[in-house]
Design goal:
single chain, 398 residues, alpha/beta, 14 strands, 38% helix, globular
Length: 398
């Protein structure tokens, strides 16, 4: 079976086509600047020439049609017709409290995704546009929704309820949901396989670090806590997001700067984090280079980020009673030796030691545990798209 995986953003659409017999990617690419001027390019097309074209993409419907045309075209195509696509899996940001696993899309699922628009205003509408566009382009082909929030639905109530009047939870569902769940789930499973231990009795702390970052505490293979909350804004400082701050800051910004709530949220989502601290960039590579060159604010941005990661690791070890392993993943977690080193530095009294030589190696997956460490430290590449493809195949074959 071929499974097409779609990840629709507000102005972008990433796609991968999997041959699920071998679980290999036969094509992947991205549509950018949807609703602006449009660009479609491939990132991998097996045995076919690459392409990058500026084409009109006024909506996600046109973007998906362009992708399907490329996948079946004589020059670039990897399948002869759309009949070779057995199902489509969609990343959906927010499933609220309704979904603890991936589901086959029907009208009830669509209604639930719409109900979560207030909880995921930047992503859920785009995710739904992708689903509807695929339904229109491929009528009768099963569509599966895979929710970023689903893995975290095993958190106990004391971990996800906010200490505000309980009525806000009852009326509006205001609680911690967590995100990056597909990634945390994948690397946790991979870590257990790597270490050769069962999920039962295991204790892991997974660190998904990138432009968006979150940590998760995983016990017995299930999430018991995570750093992101009602939205992806809570937790660690990120590329452009503030992470957790004192809410009074928003009141001061409003009163002193005359800003509306919409303007404040734009600042917290798009102009804060390491970009706001450093004034250099939201890209950690740029900040790392600037820090090495002596830029003090870039150094500060890195220090704040790694310090907060360290704090959460300590907190989660307390929450789950230690750890078998700390797992680093995603763009920053997989590729930045200096970030990993700074996060682990100072944790030696807790029996967590890193081997610098192994840390600087490029092989993946790998173990970078130092001599005498009581906690193993792993670097495991994430693969959210493969999880989506696997879930999709499993659901449609039931």
């Amino acid at each position: 079976m071929n499974v097409l995986v779609m990840n629709a953003g507000s102005s972008s659409l990433k796609y991968q086509l999997f041959d699920m017999v071998t679980e290999t990617v036969v094509a992947k690419g991205v549509c950018e600047r949807i609703g602006i001027d449009g660009r479609l390019k491939d990132l991998l097309v097996s045995g076919k020439p690459a392409f990058a074209e500026d084409i009109p993409l006024p909506s996600h419907a046109e973007a998906i049609k362009a992708v399907l045309d490329k996948l079946t075209s004589k020059e670039y195509g990897v399948i002869s017709s759309l009949k070779e696509i057995g199902a489509v899996g969609h990343r959906v940001l927010h499933g609220g409290q309704k979904f603890s696993k991936s589901v086959l899309v029907d009208e009830n699922v669509i209604a639930a995704i719409i109900e979560c628009f207030p909880l995921g205003p930047l992503h859920n509408p785009a995710n739904l546009m992708g689903i509807r566009a695929c339904q229109e382009a491929m009528p009768g082909v099963p569509q599966v929704a895979v929710f970023d929030t689903a893995f975290h639905q095993t958190m106990p109530k004391y971990a996800y309820i906010y200490p505000i009047p309980y009525s806000y939870y009852e009326k509006y569902g205001l609680r911690r949901y967590g995100f990056h769940g597909t990634s945390h789930r994948y690397v946790a499973q991979q870590a257990l396989e790597y270490m050769g231990i069962p999920a039962k009795g295991s204790k892991l702390i997974t660190c998904h670090l990138g432009n968006g970052s979150s940590l998760a505490a995983i016990k017995d293979g299930k999430c018991v806590d995570t750093t992101m909350g009602l939205s992806p804004l809570e937790g660690l400082p990120m590329g452009t997001r503030s992470g957790s701050i004192d809410p009074t800051i928003m009141s001061v910004m409003s009163e002193e700067e005359g800003l509306t709530m919409q303007q404040i949220m734009d600042i917290l989502y798009n102009k804060s984090g390491v970009l706001g601290i450093s004034g250099v960039s939201s890209d950690f590579r740029d900040i790392t280079s600037a820090s090495a060159a002596g830029n003090e604010r870039a150094k500060l941005a890195l220090s704040i980020f790694t310090y907060d990661c360290k704090k959460y690791i300590g907190a989660y070890m307390a929450a789950i009673g230690g750890a078998d392993a700390i797992v680093f993943t995603a763009g920053l977690g997989e590729n930045s030796a200096i970030i990993r080193e700074q996060i682990i530095a100072g944790l030696e009294p807790f029996g967590i030691c890193l081997d610098k030589e192994k840390n600087n190696s490029k092989s993946q997956p790998r173990e970078i545990t130092g001599e005498g460490s009581k906690v193993r430290i792993l670097v495991i590449p994430t693969n959210e798209e493969l999880v989506i493809a696997r879930d999709t195949k499993e659901i449609v074959e039931k």
